[in-house]
Write a structure and sequence with these properties.
The protein contains six helices and seven strands. By secondary structure, the chain is α/β, with parallel strands linked by helices. The protein has a five-stranded mixed β-sheet with strand order 5-4-3-6-7, sandwiched between helices. Strands 1-2 form a two-stranded antiparallel ribbon.
């Protein structure tokens, strides 16, 4: 403990400060160094465990992703438009996020992008006027918590605590039915992360439009097809199936990205904890040697003084 003297309003004030840099410890700080050393070891064990869990789940997520990509690519061209059509008033942002935290950049990029996009759209609406509505729906507990904090007025619903290890088509069909039955939209933007490998993933979006706009697009896309059943029913079923299959692939992409990012971030954290633990061990051993040396010096001086008397 080192005391410093400061002056405040012409009155001397003594304040105690402690320097916690590695080179500023004294032998009296050995309990503090040991406590920090122990805390770093505990955090290192936790991060190592999380890294091993992510490393075990990542191969299964990659294998599952290789199966969902061809499945979703079949319906991807349906109702696909090159630009946003006019007359879009209700814009729904569907964010396929992370269920758990500690996954590095994947857990932070989507909330940041969606927050900036929505705030920019709100500012443009306030400046230019208009009756455009913006709504945010989130899949994943951790991302839902972040977006609810940054966009409390626009974030209306979050689907959390998903029990399955991997997304299922039945889950995506149920989510699609809930979204289409509970809210109306002209344009729906699905935000998710695209997985490439453990060190490379990037955010992406997929645009899906309302049934009325899809009917207009179908008038140009399906001219070469003969529809045997009711055309409106077929178009509606295709729209729902496209949304469900898109969600199916997006959830698989996001899950693989989350596992890869968690593996990389926890690996880095584990290495940092190991390095810090070695550093505190060296400091503790140096302080221990200093303390022993000081005690031996005091004993030797005392013995010499007792003999001189």
């Amino acid at each position: 403990m080192q005391a410093i003297r400061t002056v405040q309003r012409s009155r001397p004030v003594w304040a105690g400060t402690r320097h916690f840099a590695v080179g500023n410890f004294v032998p009296a700080d050995m309990p503090i160094v040991k406590q920090k050393w122990k805390s770093v070891d505990i955090v290192g064990k936790i991060t190592t465990t999380m890294r091993n869990v992510a490393a075990g789940k990542l191969p299964g997520s990659e294998k599952f992703l290789r199966l969902t990509r061809p499945f979703a690519s079949v319906t991807a061209p349906f109702y696909e438009l090159t630009e946003v059509p006019p007359g879009v008033k209700k814009h729904l942002h569907l964010v396929v996020g992370c269920e758990r935290g500690l996954c590095g950049r994947v857990g932070a990029n989507l909330p940041k992008i969606v927050t900036n996009t929505v705030r920019k759209a709100v500012q443009e609406r306030m400046i230019n006027g208009g009756d455009h509505e913006i709504e945010v729906v989130v899949l994943g507990k951790k991302t839902a918590t972040k977006l609810k904090a940054s966009l409390p007025d626009q974030t209306t619903e979050g689907y959390i605590a998903m029990k399955t290890k991997l997304p299922t088509m039945a889950m995506c069909l149920d989510l699609t039915d809930r979204i289409l039955s509970s809210r109306e939209f002209d344009r729906m933007t699905i935000h998710y992360n695209v997985f490439k490998n453990t060190s490379k993933f990037w955010p992406s979006v997929i645009e899906i439009y309302s049934l009325d706009i899809c009917k207009q697009a179908a008038g140009l896309q399906f001219l070469t097809y003969e529809v045997e059943s009711d055309e409106i029913t077929v178009l509606q079923n295709l729209q729902e199936f496209k949304i469900a299959s898109t969600l199916y692939n997006c959830m698989a992409e996001q899950l693989a990205s989350e596992m890869g990012s968690r593996l990389a971030s926890m690996d880095t954290a584990s290495k940092s904890c190991r390095d810090k633990s070695k550093e505190y061990e060296q400091v503790y051993q140096r302080l221990r040697k200093t303390k022993i040396t000081n005690e031996l010096t005091v004993l030797s001086v005392g013995a010499k003084l007792s003999k001189s008397k």
